[in-house]
Amino acid sequence: MAPIEQEITARWIEIGVRFGFVVLVVTFALYVLGFVEPLVSPPDLVRLWQLPVDRYVAATGAPTGSGWLRLLIKGDYLNLLGVAVFALVALACYARMVPIFLRQGRRTQAIFAALQVLVLLAAAVGVVG
Amino acid sequence: MEWWVWPIALFALTFAMGIVAVLAGVGGGVLFVPIVSAFFPFHLDFVRAAGLLLALTAALSAAPSLLRSGLASVRLAMPLTLVSSITSVAGALIGLALPTAALQMALGLAILGIALLLWRSGGSAHPEVRTPDALGVALGMHGVYHDAALGREVEWKVHRTPAGFAAFAGIGVVAGMFGLGAGWANVPALNLLMGVPLKLAVGTSGFLLIGGATSATWVYLQRGAVLPMLVVPSILGAILGAKLGVHLLHGAKPAFIRRVVLTVLVLAGVRAFLKGFGL
């Protein structure tokens, strides 16, 4: 029998991955089938994806930082919701582990889980980079 | 060429890659970045972001069963993940700041180094850890897992923990910089350096990768380097390919497939290196 934090983490990852895949597939279908207008049309993308990212951003007016959240009405940026779900799974799992470790009196592990949450949060909100 | 050819080609390639990765016992990310950057028209910035997401989703998909079976240990992974997730952010920032030509050459050299590492490193099923070090003990890096093949519980503990931290700091930088995932380095670092039994090292490697790949993914996302047209077909192809690969595992000849993968890695590494010179 695996420790309780592993059982719970496994369940949370499973839910996150299933949800992420559904969002990814649905939003990608909306994008490529042309149901939601993209910021950069697929034919234009063929010319632009050869550029380094900074020149791509300059050429398309694509957002940086958390600006993609404001463009979720665009077909291409809508897909980033699914990507964000995958990128939030670890944060949610580590945040869930903190109270479990504290209840078990495993303070060192609780501190590491809390620090991991801070690092992932800092990366997610763009504090670093 | 029509735009829709590329996502279909990516799906086909990553589907095949997903099968081969399972049969050869390597991560998909380490194949994806060199092959796609060498033979597709996308800029390396977008390929690296897609490679990280490929590694992240593959690790997330495999994690639940490994965690439940006890073949992945959160206790072992957590301190090392913290280090690698900080350094993978640094790696992503370095990668995005370097000139493309320099990055191409560095990628070529990294891939050739990884091919050498995969070729040379065997692994020890149950390495001997006579005296666990103080740091490992303080961090609770010890435990028991059930080995189904042996039919018994196997005790594990670690040594050389400070060196392990240094190794995972370096692995994080390389993984974030090139979008390669990190399974190719996690397993030897856990097994050969820290003395973790091979099965536990393989199982924990994937869970360990999740933190580092996640933090670096956010950097690429915020820089605008995540292109859904590359990312989504690649993820879907790799996941479906990996599912088929698991079914084919029984009749496969892993040693032969591993040699093919190493050859492909060497060719892609040389191609990436030469691309750095504009060749």
Give the end-to-end Cα distance of chain B, rounded to a whole number of Å: 23 Å
Assess the beta-strand content of chain B as a share of residues.
under 5%
| Count of alpha/pi helices of chain B | 11
Mean pLDDT of chain B: 87
Structural class of chain A: mainly alpha
Q: Segments of chain B where pLDDT lies below 50 for 5+ residues?
A: none
Strand content of chain A: under 5%
Class per helix and strand makeup of chain B? mainly alpha
Quick overview of this protein structure:
Chain A is an all-alpha fold and 129 residues long. Chain A is built from six helices and no strands.
Provide an overview of this structure.
The complex is a heterodimer of chains A (129) and B (279). Chain A is mainly alpha-helical. Chain A has one domain (4-125). Chain A contains six helices and no strands. Chain A has helices spanning 4-32, 42-48, 53-60, 75-78, 80-103, 107-125. The model of chain A has no long low-confidence stretch (mean pLDDT 93). Chain B has 279 residues and is mostly helical. Chain B has one domain (5-276). Chain B has eleven helices and two strands; from the N terminus they run H-H-H-H-H-H-E-E-H-H-H-H-H. Chain B has helices spanning 5-24, 28-39, 44-69, 74-97, 100-120, 134-138, 161-178, 183-193, 198-222, 228-248, 254-276; strands at residues 142-147, 152-157. A two-stranded antiparallel ribbon of chain B has the order 1-2. In chain B, a hairpin with a 4-residue loop joins strand 1 (142-147) and strand 2 (152-157). In chain B, helix 1 (5-24) packs parallel to helix 10 (228-248) and helix 1 (5-24) crosses helix 11 (254-276). The relative contact order of chain B is 0.24. The mean pLDDT of chain B is 87. Chains A and B meet through helix 1, helix 2, helix 3, helix 5 and helix 6 of A and helix 3, helix 4, helix 9 and helix 10 of B.
